[in-house]
Amino acid sequence: MTPKVAILAGVGLGAGALLLWAGSGASDTAPPDARTLAEGRALYEAHCAACHGAELGGQPDWRTPLPSGRLPAPPHDASGHTWHHPDDLLVRIIREGTSAVVGGGYESDMPGFGDVLSDAEIKAVLAWIKSTWPERERAYQESLVP
What we know:
Layout: H1 3-23, H2 34-47, H3 49-52, H4 87-96, H5 98-102, H6 119-131, H7 135-143
GO molecular function: electron transfer activity; heme binding; iron ion binding
Domain Cytochrome c: 35-133
Keywords: Electron transport, Heme, Iron, Metal-binding, Respiratory chain, Transport
């Protein structure tokens, strides 16, 4: 296969996948169902609450560096900054860890959960977190979607 044919085949496969996805009704803006929210809450409690708090409140003084120089775990409720970021960035942070996403030598205690949670599970956790936000924060965060 020539390079030109390989490129055209790749473009064709990508366009076909996009058409299948678009036609499937898949949307990150659809409200999550009760099952997704329950799964997200359970996964949050199992993997996130130890650092970010059972009530999403984060660690005390989360804006003040620890003796290690790293920041404590931030809250995921309306008092934090999670709602200032689009879903795709939040998914990457959960999957890869903060240090990997920020780069530039930034150090964080937030590990990546990509080996533990699937993308669907990560999205369920985010759906549950977002379901706890007041309308103003949800609307702002939704406006960040390209």
